[in-house]
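Notes from the pairing session

We agreed to fold both candidates in a single pass and log them together. This is the raw record for the first candidate, unedited. Please don't reformat it; downstream parsing expects exactly this layout.

Candidate A
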Amino acid sequence: MKTQVAIIGAGPSGLLLGQLLAHKGIATVILEAKSPDYVLSRIRAGVLEQGMTDLLREAGAGARMEREGHVHHGFALTFAGRQERIDISGPTGGRSVTVYGQTEVTRDLMDARTAEGGITIYDAQDVELHDLYTDKPSVTFVKDGEKITLECDYIAGCDGFHGVSRKSVPKEAIKTFERVYPFGWLGILSHVPPVSEELIYANHERGFALCSMRSATLSRYYVQCAVDEKIEDWSDERFWTELKSRLPEETAAKMVTGPSIEKSIAPLRSFVAEPMKFGQLFLVGDAAHIVPPTGAKGLNLAASDVSTLYHVLTKRYHDGRIDLLDQYSDIALRRIWKAERFSWWMTSILHKFSDDPFAQRMQLAELDYYTSSAAGRMTIAENYVGLPYEAVI
């Protein structure tokens, strides 16, 4: 097999990149180790920055999002018995975020690629990357018992934190930065109406809580928990009681509860790999970086990587701009570290790290300062809606 760009991973970043390149006449083949049903079973983030929604429209996969997504112009921070709404549209020239589940994004991109005849090979086993530092890289994989070689010009590693792409890089060529947080998020999905039309992020002496949603009838809620908690120890009743205890009384009183349809505990970490280009291999999304979910940046950061690589490769094939290939990593990392900073900051001021009363007072002072200052609110707003994508020129 031959193609121009081999894409490893059929999650949203790999599918989005494939769609965008296809619309510029650049051939791609996507390899995915799992089945389509498995890919769609992943429950992930659901807050999309405007930059990502614009990319989905450009990729021809934004129609259902336009119909079913919920545009948000703000969110709430609760602390010390107060609830402060952060307007994200006013200070940012009308920019917004859209609540639309990652599973639905993936489904829409799958459907768009199928409709346009794009090649995606699922259940591709034993994927290996070869000759990354030559002008003839390739990928081998096993499908239905047959070993196949995919020859290509470039490889985009969109296969996540545990994927083969980053593992294929020589250890001496890569540097990693990581912070593992001493807690996790216990989350449930339930067929109940959201307690609020906008997201609520809560700082409480018992720990962090988040009230989110997927639709007008499907809610996603989280509470901070110990990283070694057992999911079986958390009945639905215990979860709802704990969640309500961390919210203002007025919010807790109007919360509708119900049985969970999904329940999980997710650890939190910050992680960045540098650089993001190794010969003809480009790392994209979770293959190169992880953020704690507090600032809703994970999927959106992958989208900004996709945007950068898409423009780099388009200029390479259309204009012969080989020089831009080496700029991918620097351009992507500038935005990545700023998003890492915002996610780290949100995590730091909203979660309980210890019983130290001084640390708790410092968190409250930080929240009070930012919400009482026009400059502070502007800083939160511009980061939450997503910093602008850097132009590839």
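Candidate B (folded immediately after A)
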Amino acid sequence: MKQVIIIKYGELSTKKDNINFFLKQLKDNIVKVLDENSQIDYDKGRMLIYTLNIEDTLKKLQKVFGIHEINVGYVIDSLDFEEIFKKVLDLLKEKEFKTFKVESKRSNKKIEKTSVELSRSLGAFILKNLKDIKVDVHNPDLMINVEYRLNNTIVYFEKVKGLGGYPVGTLGKGLLMLSGGIDSPVAGFLTIKRGVKLEAIYFESPPHTSENAKDKVKELAKKLSVYNNDIVLHVINFTKIQEAIYKNINHEYLITIMRRMMYRISAIVASRRNCRILVNGESIGQVASQTLSSMASINEVVRMPVIRPLACFDKLDIIEIAKKIDTYNTSILPYEDCCTIFVPKHPVINPSTQKCQEYEKLINWEDLIYEAVKNAEVIKISNNTKEYNDLL
């Protein structure tokens, strides 16, 4: 019997007419993370992966979106019930259990027996040939899954939960506003889960922000690239804009105007990179710039949709996800970014859009934005390499 990894699609199976598009993208994404010796076969019901390194492949597949469940099974090149039952029995002799349940799936409709009848027949055969065991259909020690296919039969027992969601790239591209904090990497992860391929933008402000802060963001991008395959990171020098805001604008409005400038720059970069949405880690009410009034005043400067996956999340929920995806310890490193320097004591929580427009007339922001975008540093970050590759 040959070992095989079985992929179950879950939510993808609801795609009906365009499921082939989603499955092809899922296969392409899996190919990128597996070794060259792996073989992948798939249809609308299952994806089968043949590989020499089962454990390593399982670890990699658990970080691929679009997979509902992963099973390690065995292929029996036969549809003869007697032969199948004997080989299942051989597999069971290596396992310890007191109770069991048989679950049969019959995709080969030429088989006259129903799935229930097939399960009963195999169950009876097992009870006859193994001692001190019994059937438990509600809470068995061991679930025996048998799938009778067109040309062969697959048997599997244990299952591993997948990440779910959609294959990365099936829902287009987005630009993640990636800071060094806890929230934005989590927002990026949740967006990738919905099939959106992400690029990222980071605002640095040297000498007010350090090279350590930049390296921290590059490391966060690298951790996200595990799920996104790779990430193009756009680094924007925000120093001149931030200093102009600080020198000329009422300090209560510093954060609001700063965020409006960041949104404008992000929308320009996103448009040039064929990204259809902006993504950020804003959560309603968490800070002054994330009240509903602030969001409305800041959002007013762009026409592109802004997706906020964490809008209704509690901070503790966000932290829990950050720990699961291994970004938390990097996010809490004590290096300040643009959003934490020059913070006023009393930032406005209900900004007036009209006042924002009046204050912005005090600085030559159009030229400053043009210069910042023109001189952006572009870095490709991949989880498959140890180095960060400049695209300049």
